[in-house]
Design goal:
single chain; mainly alpha; 11 helices
Amino acid sequence: MMLPALPTDPVFYAVGFAATFLMGLGKGAFGGGLAILGIPLLALVMDPIQAAIVTALLVAFMDMFALGSFPRSAWSKPDLVWLMPGLLAGLFVGFLVFEYVDRRLVAFSIAVITLIFTAHYFARRGKPPTAIPVSPPLALAASAGAGFTTYIAHAGGPPMALYLLRRGLTKTAYAATTIVIFTVGNLVKLPGYIWSGLGEPGVFAKAVALSPIVPVGVLIGRRLHDRLPQQRLYSLCYVLVGLAGLKLLWDASRALLTA
């Protein structure tokens, strides 16, 4: 059986490379946060369902580069002990909700909570919040929310950031720990997206066509991570969290109003 031919539309590559670069940049600089932009951007040049599948494939590929960009010593292992079980539980719930429950109400609630925390940060004029110790209940709740939202919308960054940014980690520990979490999450959810892609002709060819820009985005993002001061990087993280929250709120509100 012959493989589908690669796309030839220059507009596809212009939009697709830009989206892939931004996702890779966020992965290398912050450990994630920009994957939520992948679907709306790629949906400009392909079907939204295909955009979700292509985004999942590209993000999983990015994880392979990003994971090796940070040393294991930078991982916050005390947090990972509690974040991993919550993530897996959230992914499982995300699968069930994807099949049986109206996701619009859940997405709306998550968006509102995310924006409240973001507004609180900037109301303090960007001053770093008081660092909190490892909190198993908060870690489990945040990672479960991240697992759920990353499964249904590639939007796991806000719930995870709400916990990790309060931990007072160094910028490298924050990014490295985030990458570990979402590497596992993206690998666990990938089989489902691959299965969905079997019924979408050309979707794998589109992901392959965009994949060369992946290491470029991750590498530039990693260099950006090294050069930015920690507090400026944290402020950028909250900007990304806020933008992701607004995107979730817009999508959920529009879906509820047009139902």
